[in-house]
């Protein structure tokens, strides 16, 4: 078996991985206040309850995007677990089966790592939306005064 791509042995980072570092990890990976659909419903309903209508809508969008991001993150974690399990399952089989299951495990794990990187970049997008929301919230009083005049 070609051990360069194996779930059972650690591999060194490639030149492209060393050249272009990954974005910072997602902000939702470490802290969860609520879990599941209940938390999503609560966040969605309370998002932007106060303030201008544009920032209210942006707040709701940011909260919905957070739920999407958490779902993608969960799918990525589950795919990594499946990759490990299929590789471990094939380890006790014949050499041919072991080789194929290990390679499938590597491919699934690589896909999961790419999904995890996408979650990190998706979080960067959410941060941009948050900054737009904050700018809209700060500019709205000036717009209201101009409308009154």
Automatic annotation (TrEMBL):
A GO term from the CC aspect: eisosome filament
One GO-annotated biological process of the protein: endocytosis
GO molecular function list: lipid binding
Membrane-spanning intervals of the chain: none
Chain residue ranges for the region called Disordered: 1-29
Biased composition (Polar residues): 1-13
Pfam family, one: Pil1
Name of this chain's protein: Sphingolipid long chain base-responsive protein PIL1
Higher taxonomy: Eukaryota, Fungi, Dikarya, Ascomycota, Pezizomycotina
């Amino acid at each position: 078996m070609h051990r360069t791509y194996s779930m059972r042995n650690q591999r060194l980072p490639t030149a492209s991985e060393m050249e272009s570092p990954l974005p910072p990890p997602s902000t939702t990976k470490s802290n969860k206040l609520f879990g599941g659909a209940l938390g999503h419903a609560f966040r969605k309903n309370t998002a932007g309850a106060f303030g201008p209508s544009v920032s209210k809508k942006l707040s709701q969008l940011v909260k919905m995007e957070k739920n999407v991001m958490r779902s993608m993150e969960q799918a990525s974690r589950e795919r990594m677990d499946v990759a490990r399990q299929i590789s471990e399952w094939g380890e006790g089989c014949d050499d041919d089966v072991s080789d194929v299951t290990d390679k499938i495990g590597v491919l699934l794990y690589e896909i999961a790592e790419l999904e995890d990187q996408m979650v990190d970049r998706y979080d960067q997008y959410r941060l941009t939306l948050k900054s737009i929301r904050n700018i809209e919230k700060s500019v709205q009083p000036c717009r209201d005064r101009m409308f009154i005049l």
